[in-house]
Amino acid sequence: MAGRAVKSPPKVAVLMGGLSAERGVSLVSGRECAAALRQAGYDVAEVDAGIDLPQRLADAKPDCVFNALHGRWGEDGCVQGILEWLRIPYTHSGVLASSLAMDKARTKDIYAANGLPVVSSLIVPREDVEAGHVMPAPYVVKPNNEGSSVGVYIVREGSNAPRLAASMPAMVMVEAYVPGRELTTTVMGDRALGVTDIITSGWYDYEAKYSVGGSRHVIPAEIPVEISEACLDYALRAHVALGCRGVSRTDFRWDEARGLAGLVLLETNTQPGMTPTSLAPEQAAHQGISFPDFCAWMVKDASCDR
C-alpha cells in the first residue's frame, strides 16, 4: 500500500529591511521572526524589501507574508497595497489602518473623536519651528510619519528654538510635552496583553529602544489599578478605532501627579518591533505565549481581505 504524501509546511516570506530610516531595526526584527517561524514549523524565505519586491514575491510564491518592516513604505499602507494587489495574505494591519496610524496627526484626530485623551499639537513648517517657539516650552518636535523616535527633539523651558537636522521633513509635528512615565500596551486580536513601564536614564530615544541595556521594562507595571485598567481599555479602543488587525501596540505618557487625567495616548504602532529588546514579545511572554507561538499566531491571522 503506497504511503500517504507528506504535506509541505506553509511557506512564509518574511519582509525585512526596506527603505526607511528604520531599516536596521527591521533587519533585526525580520531575522528574529524568521528564526521563530522556522522553529514553529514553517518554510521561511527572508526577503529584503527593495524596489523589486513584487518580482521577489512572484519568484518566492509564498502562502503568506510576515511583514517585519518598520517605518515608511513598509508600515504606512504602501507595501500593504502591493500585497492586496498580489492577493497574498499578510500579517498586521491593512492599508487604511496602516496609513492612518503612521500619520500621527490623523491618529490623534481619531483618538479624540473616540473619546481617547491626547495633548495639543500642531503641524507646522520646519522653518517656523527653527525661527521661534510655536508653542510654549516644553514641547516635542518630531516627524509626522516616522517611528522608533527617529528625529525627535525635546525643547525644554528656557531653551532656544531647535535647529533641526537636514533629514527632517518640510512639515513637522510640534506637541506639548507630557512629563512622567512611559507606558505601553500590546493588543493581540481582541485582547490587551498587559502594561509595561519603560524605565530609562533619560528619555526613550532610538538608542534606549534598541540597545541592549538601553532601557528596563517592568511588566506588569507597578502602577495603580485604575491606570493599568485605563491603559488596557484605551489601547484596545485605539486598535478598534483605527481599524487595526493582528498585533498593535499603543504608547502612553502618564503624569502621576494628575492621576487618571495625566494619562494620554501618544501613538499606535501597527507593526511593533520584534527584536530581543522589544516590548510586544515581552508582553506576550508574560501571558505565557512563546515567541514562536506569537509569530505563528500572526501568520494564522494573516489576511488580504480585511
Would you kindly provide a brief summary of this structure?
With 306 residues, the chain is an alpha+beta fold. It has helices at 23-39, 53-60, 78-86, 95-102, 104-113, 126-131, 206-210, 225-242, 279-286, 291-300, and strands at 11-16, 43-48, 64-67, 121-125, 139-143, 153-155, 171-176, 181-188, 191-192, 196-199, 216-218, 247-254, 263-269.
Average pLDDT confidence is 90
Please identify the oligomeric state.
single chain
CA radius of gyration is: 20 Å
How many runs of DSSP E, i.e. beta strands? 13
Query: Total number of helical segments?
Result: 10
First-last Cα distance: 44 Å
What percent of residues adopt helix (DSSP H or I)?
25-40%
Q: Which structural class fits the helix and strand makeup?
A: alpha+beta
Q: Give the amount of beta strand, in percent.
A: 15-25%
The ordered string of helix (H) and strand (E) elements is EHEHEHHHEHEEEEEEHEHEEHH
- Coarse morphology: globular
